[in-house]
Amino acid sequence: MKQNILVRHPDDLTVSWAQHIVNQHDDNTIVANVDVVAVDIGTTTRVCVAVGHNGPNTLPNRWFVKLPSLTWRAWLITALPRLLQTEVRFYNELAEAVPLSKPVCLAAQSRFGRGSTLVLADIAEFDGVPSAASDTLTFEQAALVVEQLACSHARFWNSVHLDPKYRWLAGPIRFLEDFLGTALAVPLMKRGLRLAGTHIPSTLHVPAIHYARHRRAAMRFLSDAPKTLVHHDCHPGNLFWNNNRSKVGFLDWQLVRIGEGVSDVAYFLATALSAETRRLYEAELLVKYAQALADNGVVDVDNTQLAQRYRAHLVYAFEAMVVTLAVGGMMKLDCNLELIRRTATAVEELDAFSALPI
């Protein structure tokens, strides 16, 4: 019988708790001590712990633990759509099928009414280097990410929504998340625009509010496309690299869902590139994405249509960053404002709101 590893607070990360997790991997290993190294509170409470044990080198000594957020606003906005529970289920049921580098999962558990706990190996244990949310990527790094996304999207292209194993990705929890997003769209957009100040050009205020008022129709349009598995939160802070940045991995799968592949590309390019780099290379990166899809068996992609869908999906990247600011406590303020500036620039320059039939 699987032992209970659910905890609610960093103070609950005890030797006994860690021993339950270690027992799932090696019955002969004894945990001697557990020390909390760092605590970061955002959409979840993220705790880095050092675990002293006498086990093999394959069992890491530094763990990354995700718990429900200790910030009430972030907890409220993530608890109803069960975002941490979604990530737990991703690691338990789906992660092995996704052809992308991910952290090693040591334990993942969720119980209705009891919360969720996700325990990952600290990526530093395997020479991983995390990005910061406001990192600015080079063209070469962006090309690598886009090609990896295409590989993963191709794996599930026009099939994930037909597989009974993955129906939960579009189940009641996703409908609840979409309902909340639509119900709160206008007040959160207005608050976010006000808080962002000059980071968002005034010319975007009217179309942004118009979009928020017609968000349901916009979401229907954005979902009317070939379906695949998407990360849906692919900004620089959810990436990690090897030491020379020649390989990339993907973190934070709370928003994983069924959607259109180019939505990940739009979200990524709008948040990860400087305006100058994006202007120079976004067309080339979209061609690379289409070519990587073709190399992995997806041959029915029209590049002109892909570019139009890319423009439309930029709007969600903008909304996500503005709503993050409006809710508060979900991302460091300086990072949030920088990503708002980048996404707003992309939306304005490509006239993204006009790509939506609302």
Helix amount: 40-55%
Q: How would you spell out the order of helices and strands?
A: HEEEHHEEEHHHHHEEEEHHHH
Count of β-strands: 10
Structural class: alpha+beta
Gyration radius, rounded: 20 Å
- Work out the count of structural domains: 2
Give a description of the structure:
With 358 residues, this protein is α+β, with helices and mostly antiparallel strands. The chain folds into two domains: 114 residues, Phosphorylase Kinase, domain 1; 227 residues, Aminoglycoside 3'-phosphotransferase, Chain: A, domain 2 (Alpha-Beta Complex), CATH 3.90.1200. Helix content is 45%, strand content 16%. The strands form three sheets. The chain has a five-stranded antiparallel β-sheet with strand order 1-2-3-5-4. Strand 2 and strand 3 form a beta hairpin. Helix 4 packs parallel to helix 10 and helix 10 packs across helix 11. The model has no long low-confidence stretch (mean pLDDT 94).
How are the secondary structure elements laid out?
Blueprint: H1 15-23, E1 31-41, E2 44-53, E3 62-68, H2 72-79, H3 83-93, E4 105-111, E5 115-121, E6 129-130, H4 139-155, H5 172-183, H6 185-196, H7 205-213, H8 215-223, E7 228-230, E8 239-241, E9 248-250, E10 257-259, H9 261-272, H10 275-295, H11 303-327, H12 333-349
Antiparallel strand pairs: 1-2, 2-3, 3-5, 4-5, 6-8, 7-10, 8-9
Helix pairs in contact: 4-9, 4-10, 6-7, 6-11, 9-10, 9-11, 9-12, 10-11, 11-12
List keywords for this structure.
2 domains, globular, single chain, alpha+beta, 358 residues, 5-stranded antiparallel beta sheet, 3-stranded antiparallel beta sheet
